[in-house]
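During the reporting period the student researcher (J.K.) took over the structure-prediction task from the postdoctoral fellow and processed the backlog of single-chain submissions. One of the processed entries is reproduced below for the supervisory committee.
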Amino acid sequence: MFLLSVALLSLLPFPWGSAEPAVSERWHAWPVTRVFPAALAGASPSGARVTYLLAGVAPEAPCRVALQPAAAAMLPRCLTALRATYTDSTQTFVVTVGVAVLDGPTPPVRAGGRPPTVRPVAFPGGPAERFGEAQYVTGAVAASGGPYTVLTAAGYADGRPYQREGGTEPRLGAAATQLAQALHKALTR
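J.K. obtained the following structure tokens:
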């Protein structure tokens, strides 16, 4: 009888151990390496393969600290923000990705061009060491009405500042968009 009971119990699904956390809990239930993987695949506008490599992860911060003021104002239900900076494999571009954790639905957020977004995070000793507010050239926003809005700020690894009349390199815009979409999709699917 005991063996039959054990055999029947083994057929029942148990919620502990193997269950995936709810989407709204992933930001703190997952290890940081899952929220911000060491490498992400992408493609240039011409279709060439690109790999984005993690330069560093910043400590969790209040939204008013991690986001530019206009972005924080557009996301009034933001509880906290996570940030990491990536570089492309050629170390030409740097992109800070911010995950805004919300306690309600995502409001519509403008994307494209140079939108209000996440504050760039520099990391000493590598291609992201000269990335800051002055170097932010373009960005992207990924949101789907769920508990996260992912914002990116992209610029050049050589530290050149933003110049309004210079236009945006298509590869830089592609990097900002691809990283926002990839990390949003990973958190919400």
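The committee noted the following: Helices lie at 2-11, 26-29, 32-35, 63-66, 69-74, 170-188.
J.K. will present the remaining backlog at the next meeting.
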